């Protein structure tokens, strides 16, 4: 499930185009008529329902709602005190700033569509809390959340494509430093995390905007990685922002 080689795929179960579930229990029930696109373990195909099934397994085994389990077993030990889990992007979160879309230099606020997010994308956090999350993956020691070998198991490629691990990717560095990455975006927000094993650093960027045809977050991340390696940045300018 976590390396997306289960055999499930958007081609056989286009979850984004279907009516949205209201619980992890319902997500699994809704999957009953779905067909496999490939035999399990044969092909890597990113598919949000993989995360839904994994999250539902956590609920069944622990006997706790997924959000409660994360709060007790992950967020609390890591001192991620401002991090919460939501089932839908319509769930209210105190203090959460508006998301935006940006196109051709124009930026405007926009509400997120009513999409189910638990297990796959429903984490709302802060820069401080995300730094604690990155420390879990870079310190190289055992913690209350992971054993000493835990990060190795999470980051090592296990999918048939030879790059993808448990939610983390190992892209070709093309002559640069080795990177372990996890990018993500929704309709009005963007985030990306990069671990740099050779230096022991982790870098996270979060933006309350989504740029369909631009890649500001990626450009900034490239410069930060270059600075971490003691090199000048790319010097690539970012587009001017004109707010409506």
UniProtKB/TrEMBL annotation:
Which ranges are annotated Polar residues under compositional bias?
Answer: 1-12
Report the leader peptide range: none
Residue limits of the Beta-lactamase-related domain?
Answer: 2-224
Enumerate the residue ranges of region (Disordered): 1-20
Entry-linked Gene3D superfamilies: DD-peptidase/beta-lactamase superfamily
PANTHER family in UniProt: BETA-LACTAMASE-RELATED DOMAIN-CONTAINING PROTEIN (PTHR46825:SF9), D-ALANYL-D-ALANINE-CARBOXYPEPTIDASE/ENDOPEPTIDASE AMPH (PTHR46825)
Query: What protein name applies here?
Result: Beta-lactamase
């Amino acid at each position: 499930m976590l390396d997306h080689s289960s055999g499930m795929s958007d081609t056989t179960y286009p979850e984004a185009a279907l009516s949205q579930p209201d619980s992890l229990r319902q997500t699994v029930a809704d999957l009953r008529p779905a067909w496999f696109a490939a035999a399990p373990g044969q092909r890597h195909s990113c598919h949000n329902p993989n995360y839904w099934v994994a999250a539902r397994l956590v609920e069944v085994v622990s006997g706790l709602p997924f959000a409660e389990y994360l709060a007790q077993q992950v967020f609390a030990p890591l001192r991620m005190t401002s991090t919460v889990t939501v089932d839908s992007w319509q769930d209210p979160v105190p203090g959460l700033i508006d998301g935006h879309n940006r196109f051709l230099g124009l930026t405007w606020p926009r509400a997120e569509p009513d999409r189910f997010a638990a297990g796959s994308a429903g984490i709302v956090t802060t820069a401080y809390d995300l730094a604690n999350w990155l420390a879990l993956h870079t310190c190289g020691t055992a913690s209350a959340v992971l054993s000493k070998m835990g990060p190795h198991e999470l980051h090592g490629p296990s999918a048939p494509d030879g790059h993808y691990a448990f939610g983390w990717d190992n892209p070709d560095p093309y002559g640069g430093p080795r990177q372990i990455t996890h990018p993500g975006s929704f309709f009005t927000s963007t985030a990306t995390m990069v671990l740099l094993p050779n230096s022991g650093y982790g870098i996270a960027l979060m933006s309350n905007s989504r740029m369909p045809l631009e890649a500001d977050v990626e450009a900034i991340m490239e410069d930060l990685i270059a600075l971490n390696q003691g090199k000048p940045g790319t010097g690539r300018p970012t587009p001017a922002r004109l707010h409506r």
